[in-house]
Automatic annotation (TrEMBL), chain A:
Function as written in the Swiss-Prot or TrEMBL entry: Subunit of the oligosaccharyl transferase (OST) complex that catalyzes the initial transfer of a defined glycan (Glc(3)Man(9)GlcNAc(2) in eukaryotes) from the lipid carrier dolichol-pyrophosphate to an asparagine residue within an Asn-X-Ser/Thr consensus motif in nascent polypeptide chains, the first step in protein N-glycosylation. N-glycosylation occurs cotranslationally and the complex associates with the Sec61 complex at the channel-forming translocon complex that mediates protein translocation across the endoplasmic reticulum (ER). All subunits are required for a maximal enzyme activity.
Family from the record: Belongs to the DAD/OST2 family.
TM stretches of this protein: 31-49, 55-75, 95-113
Taxonomy of the source species: Eukaryota, Viridiplantae, Streptophyta, Embryophyta, Bryophyta
Protein name, as recorded: Dolichyl-diphosphooligosaccharide--protein glycosyltransferase subunit DAD1
Species of provenance: Sphagnum jensenii
Keyword terms, alphabetized: Apoptosis, Endoplasmic reticulum, Membrane, Transmembrane, Transmembrane helix
Superkingdom in the source lineage: Eukaryota
Subcellular locations according to the entry: Endoplasmic reticulum membrane
From TrEMBL, chain B:
Name of the protein: Dolichyl-diphosphooligosaccharide--protein glycosyltransferase subunit 2
Domain Ribophorin II C-terminal, chain residue ranges per copy: 601-700
Domain Ribophorin II third intervals: 445-568
TM helices/strands, residue ranges: 615-636, 648-669, 681-700
Keyword Amino-acid biosynthesis among record annotations: no
PANTHER family hit by this protein: DOLICHYL-DIPHOSPHOOLIGOSACCHARIDE--PROTEIN GLYCOSYLTRANSFERASE SUBUNIT 2 (PTHR12640:SF0), RIBOPHORIN II (PTHR12640)
Residue stretches making up the Ribophorin II second domain: 335-437
Length: 114, 709
């Protein structure tokens, strides 16, 4: 029991120190993802309180946050220099894709919002 | 011109052929009508039309022309409440006032003629000088018409008639210039379209012109012009437009409309007046097809034709022309529709003109009379009817002792009695009409009996006599039968089979039951077996009225006769479901208003309280705030944001364009629809591309440079 706790603590510390060395750019993107997911959480709590009457509104709110979180994750993958898969992709191009996909996603969301 | 000489000899044969064709056409067109369809001017129409004319304080009816229309129309309607003295006195004053147009003189003179004013010579003295000048300088059809027609009316009042001759010679050449080749005429030399109305007016005043020529015995004028005018007049009637049911009329042309024409009524009136005037002066009759005259008469007698005073004048004047129309006078033939054997009616046929005056110079023949429904030979054929002076009708003794009851189809023929100088009358072909022969039917041997169901022995029986009110009471129970016998005879003695013979039982609570009484060789018989009828009668015991109903179209004395009152004793209704008696429905229950329906509408969904929603709205914004705080904590900056030059502008442009798209989305959520949003998004997207591409490629280049450097 004690070993698991100490193991967990050691793990967290290791993660923290490893994380500190990531680029600011990537940390910004991670922060954005966390922000999106927090918004989702707030919406779900609200829905559980008052019921899902305008269901389409609920869905569009949730999908907006989750969609943009997913797109941010894709951006992070493409921008990360350590990722061999996207070596030849310039980060500006990835960012442009991110912006475009977000705009399309939000058009659909707005239509569904009603 | 050259063809008229030979044409005159061919005309009689052609006219015969036309007549035959006319008859054939008329026969074919009669298949659906019961009578020949021409009804004289009805009283309702007369009243309506007379109501259009209301006199002013000074006795006039508006302008001079309107006054003339009113006076002439009221003269035709035989209404004498016009202030002729007042009008005549003011006419002289009107004519003395200086006036330029010959039209005013024309109307004044016409009014004086209609009212038969004694001031004729005074009026003529004043008008004559200006009239001669007007005739010489008249160029259009209307101007010629007014001046010549005025001359025609006042020639009898003035002693200066010889001087008109000179003026008139010029008139004929002007007339010739306005004539067209095919019976149509122009208003002025320059107008291109010709019209039936102008044609009518042409002949309308060509009569006064030619009559004046005759009067002054001007042989050169006479020979030249008459043939030309005659062919023109006959060609006029080729321009007739037709409507359904044989109605014919003249259509006005654009010229008429632009000169303020009165439409089809005015055109028709003009042609009729003109052709009548011409026919009055020609030595031979004007050959116009009979059915054309008939069709025009039908048009003029359309109910509710005239909508205002002017139209009323045209209609009435046209009808008065038709009353004495030289080619043929259309007559209306009306027969009596019901003949009663018991009062020994005669068949009466009223032959009247279109205005309702009886015509006595025709021969009316009953061609045939068939009984409808039987294939028997005609009851009558080729019988002449006699004219009765007092009633103005043609009478025939149709009924005899052997005439059957029922409907008959009659075919009548109306021919003119040939005598010189009289008009010929036309009924538009053979006249078909239906009459019904009715009579009082004899009712006899009426017997009402109550019989025992099993044995058939009558427990009660009564013999009733029609017409006598005997209050008979019967009583029966469910084990008995009610028997009714009766005989119906027609006046010829044979048994009569009416369309309706019913027996009705009416309960005191107004519940009714109807039974058909069947006929047999021995008469009519009905047996009501109460045992079988108990359920139908809904177990209702009590007093019933026994009513006999007999009726038929040919029966003069159809009746509803309460025979007796019946005390019916039926067993009680079985337990469980007492049948409610069906009282006859009140009319209001069936067509009155139903009870109001209270609709239940869709209730809107329950929404959460506003406060809660607002709290969560602010909670949603918290992560966003956290994001910005986190960004500051991470040390994110925008140091690389280009501030100067083109990159700066492109960067600002790119961010601005994206922001505008987001604003568009916000508007889309609020009020726009998808299509306008897509259109605008498409445009804004195109606007985002150049700055975005530039700035991003610039940043990519600068970071690549940094790497290599």
């Amino acid at each position: 029991m004690g070993s698991t706790i100490t193991d967990a603590q050691a793990l967290v510390t290791a993660l923290r120190s490893a994380y500190a060395s990531t680029l600011i750019k990537l940390k910004i993107i991670d922060l954005y993802v966390v922000f999106s997911l927090a918004t989702v959480l707030v919406q779900v709590i609200y829905m559980s309180l008052v019921g899902s009457f305008p269901f389409n509104a609920f869905l569009s709110g949730i999908l907006s946050c989750i969609g943009s979180a997913v797109l941010a994750v894709c951006l992070r993958m493409q921008v990360n220099k350590e990722n061999k898969e996207f070596k030849d992709l310039p980060p500006e191009r990835a960012f442009a894709d991110f912006v475009l996909c977000n705009l399309v996603l939000h058009l659909v969301i707005m239509n569904f919002l009603g | 011109m050259a063809s008229t000489a030979s044409g005159a000899s061919r005309l009689p044969l052609a006219w015969l052929r036309l007549l035959l064709l006319g008859w054939l056409f008329a026969v074919v067109s009669q298949t659906t009508c019961a009578s020949n369809g021409l009804q004289p001017l009805s009283d309702a129409d007369r009243e309506a039309v007379a109501g259009y004319f209301t006199a002013d304080a000074d006795g006039f009816y508006g302008s001079l022309q309107e006054t003339y229309h009113a006076l002439r129309a009221l003269e035709i309607l035989e209404q004498s409440n016009v202030e002729s003295q007042k009008i005549c006195d003011s006419l002289v004053g009107l004519v003395q006032a200086p006036h330029d147009s010959v039209e005013d003189a024309f109307h004044v003179v016409r009014i004086a003629e209609v009212l038969q004013c004694p001031h004729g010579a005074e009026v003529a003295k004043v008008i004559v000088p200006s009239l001669q000048a007007a005739v010489e300088k008249a160029k259009s059809l209307l101007e010629l018409h007014y001046s010549v027609a005025t001359i025609a009316i006042i020639k009898g009042w003035s002693s200066k008639s010889a001087s008109f001759n000179v003026a008139l010679s010029g008139v004929f050449s002007s007339l010739k210039e306005l004539a067209g080749p095919d019976g149509k005429w122009h208003y002025t030399k320059s107008s291109s379209e010709s019209s039936a109305k102008a044609a009518g007016l042409y002949t309308f005043f060509s009569f006064p012109t030619t009559a004046i020529a005759y009067h002054f015995k001007n042989p050169s004028v006479r020979g030249l012009q008459i043939g030309h005018i005659k062919t023109a007049a006959i060609k006029l009637f080729d321009n007739l437009e037709s409507h359904d049911q044989g109605v014919l009329y003249f259509q006005e042309s654009k010229d008429d409309a632009s000169s303020g024409g009165g439409g089809t009524l005015e055109a028709t009136w003009a042609v009729l007046r003109g052709s009548a005037a011409l026919a009055a002066v020609l030595p031979a009759k004007l050959k116009v097809k009979v059915e054309k005259v008939f069709g025009i008469a039908k048009f003029l007698l359309t109910p509710g034709l005239a909508l205002n005073a002017t139209e009323a004048f045209y209609q009435l004047d046209s009808l008065s022309v038709l009353e004495e129309y030289r080619p043929a006078v259309p007559v209306s033939v009306q027969t009596s529709s019901i003949l009663s054997l018991s009062s020994n009616d005669n068949l009466e046929v009223a032959v009247t003109t279109v205005l309702g005056k009886p015509v006595s110079q025709v021969k009316v023949t009953l061609v045939s009379a068939h009984c409808i429904g039987a294939d028997a030979p005609p009851v009558w054929s080729s019988q002449n009817l006699n004219y009765v002076e007092n009633s103005g009708k043609y009478v025939f003794h149709f009924l005899s002792a052997t005439t059957d009851l029922g409907k008959y189809k009659l075919s009548l023929e109306v021919c003119s009695v040939k005598s010189e100088g009289d008009s010929s009358y036309t009924s538009g072909g053979p006249v078909k009409s239906d009459i019904t022969v009715i009579s009082a039917i004899g009712i006899s041997d009426v017997q009402l009996a109550v019989l025992d169901s099993n044995t058939g022995i009558s427990d009660f029986s009564a013999v009733l006599e029609y017409g006598k009110d005997e209050n008979i009471t019967l009583s029966a129970n469910h084990l008995q039968k009610l028997l009714l016998l009766l005989k119906l005879t027609s006046p010829s003695g044979s048994p009569f089979n009416p369309q309706q013979v019913f027996l009705k039982l009416v309960h005191e609570s107004h519940v009714e039951h109807l039974y058909l009484v069947k006929s047999s060789a021995k008469g009519f018989q009905l047996t009501l077996d109460f045992l079988g009828l108990v359920e139908k009668l809904q177990y209702l015991s009590g007093t019933y009225n026994v009513v006999l109903i007999v009726g038929d179209m040919t029966m003069e004395n159809s009746f509803v006769w309460t025979l007796a009152s019946l005390d019916l004793d039926l067993p009680a209704a079985p337990e469980g479901k007492p049948l409610p008696p069906e009282a006859p429905l009140e009319i209001t229950a069936r067509v009155g208003s139903k009870p109001e329906i209270a609709h239940i509408f869709w209730q809107p969904e329950k929404r959460p309280p506003t406060l809660l929603s607002n709290i969560f709205l602010s909670l949603t914004l918290l992560p966003l705030i956290g994001f910005f705080i986190g960004l500051g904590y991470l040390g994110a900056n925008i140091k690389l944001f280009p501030t100067t030059g083109l990159p700066g502008a492109a960067a600002v442009g790119f961010h601005g364009a994206v922001a505008s798209i987001l604003v568009l989305y916000f508007l889309f959520w609020l009020k726009l629809d998808l299509f306008t949003t897509l259109k605008s998004a498409w445009i804004l997207g195109l606007g985002t591309l150049p700055p975005g591409h530039f700035i991003l490629s610039y940043l990519a280049d600068s970071s690549a440079k940094q790497k290599t450097a």
